[in-house]
Amino acid sequence: VLMDFDASYGRYALRYWLTNLAADDPTDSEVRDHIYAALQRAGIRLAFPEHNVHMTKESEKHEQAKQVRHTRERVEALRKVELFNAFHDDELLAIAERLKYAPFAKGDVITRQGAVAHWLYMLVDGEADVFLETQGQEKRKLSTLRPGSFFGEMGLMTGAPRTATVIATEDVECYQLDKASFQEVLLKRPELADEISNILVSRRYGLDSMQQNLDAETRAQEMAQQHQDILARIRGFFGLKAA
Asked: Are the CB atoms for 122 and 77 separated by under 8 Å?
């Protein structure tokens, strides 16, 4: 609700309902955390009064140095993700420059099972739980994600709906990589799709306990078929020509 205008910015209020009036202070704090994280993910800065400030060259150098440092940190984060093992340094740099910072507050749903979203998340700080929801049954916890984990790769690479729900168990920091950022690299080097398909198949079979129990021959046959299916979906999703 818009309440008032002040010097160069607007003042807003959020209304919510409490079931326990004694918990007003901690609840108010949690609400602010969720709002602030959502604003950061959307790239919206909090409104402040505007002033004219004359920047010096030293400030410009400081900002440039900070940008270089942030890009370097993101490249190093990408190097830790198996999905990017076959990428060249210049390709990692191009992707790092387009990563989007995406923080979440404790309790936030980062991804929801069944949703369609063409990006993946790289978890760099904090923890999140992964749940499988089956109709008529209680949702089941599958695993806990920790820094260095990534998820949502099938949505990024094939457009497939989310296969699980991921909920932040504490305040977390992620980088978000979308389809457009990835497409530029794939169009220049479409053979990467084959390597990525292999990684996605291996990851899927490694996470599925039932598939782990298959005999070696059956497992190899199913993985080969899965590789061709996923490779075809990646090529179709990104508009790549078959080799």
From this structure: yes
